[in-house]
Amino acid sequence: MVTTVPYLHKPQLKTSVTGLQWTRAEHVKRESPNILTLPRDLLQSLWLSLAGIAFPAPQRGSESVVIDIEKLMEWLARKVRFENPHSIREYLLRFTELLDVIPEAVDAAKKHFPEAQLVMDVYQDPEIADCYLVLYMRLKHYDDSVIERLEKAEAEFLNQLVNKRGWIQLTTDFREPEGEGAV
Amino acid sequence: MGKKYANPPIEEAVCEFRLTPETRWDLTVPGLLYERLKETFPQKEQRMIQEVELTQGPEGLQQQIRTSERLWFFTEDRKMLAQVGPRLLAVNALKPYPHWEGFKPRIDMVWKSLQETVEVQGLERIGLRYINRIELPAPNVKFDEYFDFYPFVGQRLPQHIAYFLAAVEFSYADDRDHCRVQLAPIRLSGKEGKAAFMLDLDYFLTRPRGVAAADALAWVEEAHSRVEEVFEGCITDKLRNMFEEVL
């Protein structure tokens, strides 16, 4: 039986494969899961791809934009609290080029703010017709290092936003973590 | 002729053509194809796609990773796109679904443009897929009120379902074609006070070279009829009423 499972690629990094992050293995310690964990992770998780394993369908790829977004949302749901998932989905449909960047942004945020609750929302500028994705870091305690860490995290993916439509902004609203996933 | 709805739940429709390895394909093909398509699909995007190939052999599960470049050509309003990868062509229609009368001519146009660009030797796979997002007005619903396709859970089993995936493949044309139907819930934030499900219908050619390139568009037309039948078979009148049939 041969089946193919699509996942997105992080072309800039030699040792990390973004698609592998789209798994739900709970015990993978590293930020970017090891490639060897993939089949088990897949079998544990990717519901949308599972049918592709259960039903042999040669040469299945990822041709659906919506499925790509749903897989990303599934992966994000483990790491990020959504303020308004519907708006996020709509934004991603409009700005598909961000699909490859978001995992990098979230990983960078997790790396520099391991203690933070990450909250994703779509920010709509009230004065001009502009909106973008926002990833808020919410901490129990804010200190002087926050801004510097934010800048370092942002530097890890900012170059990938160049020449792309859409934007994701890393920031903090200086609120405390709340609700499910609060740390 | 199938039913038409004022509020169709279709999030995306995808028509995919994968060519057999004998078809000559090189790096110039996407560019040449773009030249033919750019009036309709002017906005270019590029992505790197990796596919993991899982092979069940005598030594167990083996994996191979393939990376390929995928070009996405969007229409000006970004409601439709053509995807081009190595021996792959797909046409996607995003919501609002333009109905078959709006989608089929684009499929025809893109497929014919490909045929004018490369000599298609054969088709490995053709697929016509409809991804529906169905939102229901309450967080907990009785499946059988809305669906005629859902997981059956006997009385001796727990009745609180945290998650499920219902999937089946139907066989058509002496097993030349299959229609895969999947129903699964979509995660919502919990604030919405409603439930959402993804109903994914994928009609595809199971036998490589089972359809000649010259017959590909006729196959797509037939596939569409089958998908419509299956979709109607999956839902109840209550759901049909929510979609508001246009007479």
How would you sum up this structure, described in words?
The complex is a heterodimer of chains A (183) and B (247). Chain A contains six helices and five strands; from the N terminus they run E-H-H-H-E-H-H-E-E-H-E. Chain A has helices spanning 38-44, 47-54, 65-77, 85-94, 102-112, 145-155; strands at residues 2-8, 80-82, 117-124, 131-138, 168-171. By secondary structure, chain A is an alpha/beta fold. The relative contact order of chain A is 0.14. Chain B has 247 residues and is an alpha+beta fold. Chain B has helices at 29-37, 99-117, 143-146, 216-234, 237-243, and strands at residues 4-5, 10-19, 43-57, 60-74, 80-85, 88-94, 123-136, 166-172, 177-185, 195-205, 245-246. Chains A and B meet through strand 1, helix 1, helix 2, helix 3 and helix 4 of A and strand 2, strand 3, strand 4, strand 5 and strand 6 of B.
- The gross shape of chain A turns out to be globular
Strand residue content of chain B: 35-45%
Structural class of chain A: alpha/beta
Quaternary status? heterodimer
Widest β-sheet, arrangement of strands of chain B: 3-4-5-6-2-7-10-9-8
Radius of gyration from the alpha-carbon trace of chain B, in angstroms: 20 Å
State the major sheet of chain A. Answer: 4 strands, mixed
User: How much helix is in the residues of chain B?
Assistant: 10-25%
* Measured distance between first and last alpha carbons of chain A: 43 Å
Number of domains of chain A: 1
Query: Could you estimate the helical fraction of the residues of chain A in percent?
Result: 25-40%
Instruction: Report the portion of residues of chain A in β strands.
Output: 15-25%
Q: If you average the pLDDT of chain A, what whole number results? A: 73
Major sheet of chain A: order of its strands? 2-3-4-5
Number of strands of chain A: 5
